[in-house]
Amino acid sequence: MRSPRDFLKPLCVGAPDPITEVPFPPSRMIHFFDASNEKMRAKLPDIAAKADIVLGNLEDAVPVDRKVAAREGLVTVGKEIDLGGTQLWTRINALDSPWCIDDLTTLVGEIGDKLDVIMVPKVEGPWDIHYIDRLLAQLEAKAGVKKPILVHAILETAQGVAHVDEIAAASPRMQGMSFGPADLAASRRMKTTRVGGGHPGYLSMSDPTLDADGQIDASVARVTAQQDPWHYSIARMVDACTTNGCLPFYGPFGDIKDVAACEAQFRAAFLLGCVGAWSLHPVQIDIAKKVFSPPVDEVLFAKKVLEAIPDGKGVHMIDGKMQDDATWKQCKVMVDLATMLSEKDPELKAAYGF
Ligand SMILES: CC(C)(COP(=O)(O)OP(=O)(O)OC[C@H]1O[C@@H](n2cnc3c(N)ncnc32)[C@H](O)[C@@H]1OP(=O)(O)O)[C@@H](O)C(=O)NCCC(=O)NCCSC(=O)C[C@H](O)C(=O)O
Ligand SMILES: [Mg+2]
């Protein structure tokens, strides 16, 4: 294990100094686009005007014969498209793939100063982050990159979940993590073909009604309720990220047409502490924006609490609800997020009354 004192020294002579605090600009959605697809690239200026983060995907979903075109397409995006204040990320190919090394050398060499974050798929343990960390430092030094490129791990293998805390703590470059339900399901041999969301087979059932002989009365219907198969892992990811000062995100929701279920999945993640989710299709940008911006009525109430209890101490009754030091902190989370988002979004600013 590295000495904590070394954490703030660059891992290569000439690489930029590591950051001490992960920046937290609006991050409600990471919008995926296939950079080898010219049509999608052409839409980027419009998409960037709506999205907080755009991500050029090089990994899964990009066919093998378009891997190089996707990498080159992303270089073109970095060099030629003005994204305004919207962050530019990439998802590189996995560390055990033959494309990963060229993804990193090309992207850092060509557009290292334009890339905010590199998303690394299928991270299994801190060793994967250590590899990327050192290599990025060498490439940044060689290319003269001025600020460190941050790293975002996808939590999508059983091993990754088992090592989630060590992954989050592996480097000061760790910007955050996303939850990858498709690969995780496959890795665990879960029997689902869905990408995120619930499953009608994953449910709990009320007790049976017994007849006079104490036998189960099969004629009386029993109530069932779908449970959330992802709750445990997402909650672990949120704790690991928060403990280590980085940001947790929900990942993809694959049923593009089922906007209601997408919204429900995103909202469950938001309530558990995630700051955003992936959008795979333009329609999911608006869903994420709605869900990951705190609700207006809650923000107004939270503002009222903060105003009524300036020192955040003691016990108070506000609108019939008990407020104390802990609820004050909950309200502060809500108001801080609303304040940060308002700086980007004048409509939200007006709605929140800032
Ligand atoms: C999912 C899609 C393949 C759907 O595409 P398509 O059938 O073309 O949808 P539409 O006809 O509704 O598209 C309408 C227009 O919008 C453009 N479009 C579609 N998606 C995007 C996008 N992401 N960014 C920009 N523009 C987009 C279409 O080109 C149409 O344009 P026009 O013809 O001019 O009207 C497609 O949405 C897509 O490929 N999405 C990204 C998929 C992706 O990145 N998948 C990988 C991430 S999920 C994953 O990897 C799993 C995870 O790792 C895990 O393990 O859980
Ligand atoms: Mg995956």
From TrEMBL:
Metal-binding listed as a keyword: yes
Every HpcH/HpaI aldolase/citrate lyase domain range: 28-194
Entry keywords, A to Z: Lyase, Magnesium, Metal-binding
Family matches, as PANTHER family: CITRATE LYASE SUBUNIT BETA (PTHR32308:SF10), LYASE BETA SUBUNIT, PUTATIVE (AFU_ORTHOLOGUE AFUA_4G13030)-RELATED (PTHR32308)
SUPFAM superfamilies: Phosphoenolpyruvate/pyruvate domain (SSF51621)
GO biological process, one term: oxaloacetate metabolic process
Pfam families referenced in this protein's UniProt entry, alphabetically: HpcH_HpaI (PF03328)
Positions contributing to substrate binding: 91, 156
GO MF entry, a single one: lyase activity
Positions contributing to Mg(2+) binding: 156, 183
Protein name, as recorded: CoA ester lyase
Cofactor(s) recorded in Swiss-Prot or TrEMBL: Mg(2+)
InterPro entries per the UniProt record, alphabetical: Aldolase/citrate-lyase_domain (IPR005000), Citrate_lyase_beta/mcl1/mcl2 (IPR011206), Pyrv/PenolPyrv_kinase-like_dom (IPR015813), Pyrv_kinase-like_dom_sf (IPR040442)
Superkingdom of source: Bacteria
Keyword Transmembrane applies: no
